[in-house]
Amino acid sequence: MVPINDKTYAILKPANAMEGIADDEALVFVIDEIDDEDCLVIVEDDAIVDQVFEEYYKMLKAEGIDVE
Asked: What pTM does this model have?
């Protein structure tokens, strides 16, 4: 879970092979409320995806995990 501003994002790797997704790739989802339920909605905006991964790497570094 990656909080940015007032939103929470999740980085998830598919458990099974998906067309167009490499084995080392993950997808970014935002948690949105739809019909009073929290739902995962895929993020398609590359700028937001980049921002989420950048924040995720900062979180890992803060925990002492080396990220390249």
From this structure: 0.85
